[in-house]
Design a protein that fits this description.
Number of helices: 4
Helix content: 10-25%
Radius of gyration: 23 Å
Number of domains: 1
Shape: globular
Mean pLDDT: 73
Low-confidence stretches: 1-36, 146-156, 210-216
Largest sheet: 7 strands, antiparallel
Number of strands: 14
Length: about 290
């Protein structure tokens, strides 16, 4: 029987065990003994963290509020604004994985998908998202680590253990600062600056304590995508040509730059003031598949 290919979205990796194997325990019989064998399917699980403090939450958000705290809010968008945010992706499964597609989907404020077939407030959320997408541009970059000690193949993905260490330290520093400053209002820019300075100082202190050797790491940035955002909405981008593969415990960093045009595209017929006061929501996603036999 032809083997089923292990292909799934990042969050569905655990389900693959039952999909691929089915009945996992079976018996091989000989003339005199029964030999019990167990087959365990591997998993493709991609875990994501934003490049922010703390690292759980959306990449792009207008302001830091209760339930959605962060040190890098964009503020309210105006024509001509451009913001870049990072997304760490780590393979926490047991099989090698490759990036197949990148996606961006309009959602409502509860992060539920909306479409042109939606009704009521959801249809309005979709129309507002499309209006923003028609006036904006998105660039996606992969950030690769450069290690001079690796000889002929210097550009690699970062080690997931290193990424986890940095993320743990950042979140630990954030918690220490919040515990020491319970009344801090992170909607005030000066408080955000204090938080960033404290966390950065803590990060540097901890990394220096844990590593006595000099840091020789450099980074190389590869542009993957640079088009109007509307071309990306509901249209998965084929990432195969960039051969982004992660072995278990490897990680990479994708940087997303979103820019709102200073004015609507020529000939679009869009009223320059039509987006004033609106809020839009998008989910940036990625689809990964096993890299072996694929």
């Amino acid at each position: 029987m032809k083997k089923k290919r292990l292909a799934m979205l990042a969050l569905s990796g655990v389900i693959a065990t039952s999909l691929v194997v089915g009945g996992a325990t079976y018996a091989l019989f000989t003339a005199s003994v029964t030999n019990e064998n167990n087959v365990q399917a591997g998993t493709v699980i991609i875990t994501s963290h934003r490049d922010d403090v703390p690292n759980v939450g959306p990449m792009f958000y207008t302001k830091s509020v209760a339930g959605q705290v962060g040190a890098m809010p964009t503020g309210e968008w105006a024509p001509g604004d451009k913001h870049t945010r990072g997304l760490f992706l780590e393979n926490t499964g047991t099989l090698g994985a490759k990036l197949r597609t990148l996606t961006v989907l309009p959602t409502n404020s509860a992060s539920l998908p909306v479409t042109a077939a939606s009704t009521g407030a959801d249809l309005q959320a979709y129309n507002d998202a499309i209006l923003f997408a028609k006036q904006s541009r998105v660039k996606i970059w992969e950030v690769k680590e450069y290690d001079p000690t690796r000889g002929l193949v210097p550009f690699t993905r970062m080690d997931g253990t290193d990424m986890d260490l940095v993320m743990d330290i950042i979140n630990e520093g954030y918690k220490i600062w919040r515990d020491a400053n319970p009344a801090a209002d992170l909607e005030r820019q000066e408080e955000v600056a204090r938080l960033l300075n404290a966390v950065n100082a803590y990060l540097m202190e901890q990394l220096n304590d844990r590593s006595g050797s000099g840091n020789t790491r450099l980074f190389n940035v590869v542009k993957m995508y640079d088009q109007p955002l509307i071309n990306f909405v509901n249209m998965p981008f084929n990432a195969d040509p960039f051969t982004i593969r992660l072995q278990p415990q490897e990680a990479t960093l994708l940087a997303y730059t979103v820019e709102m045009g200073l004015r609507p595209p020529a000939g679009s017929g869009i009223d320059p003031n039509s987006f004033q006061g609106k809020s839009v929501f998008f989910t940036f996603g990625s689809k990964w598949e096993q890299s072996a036999h694929n």
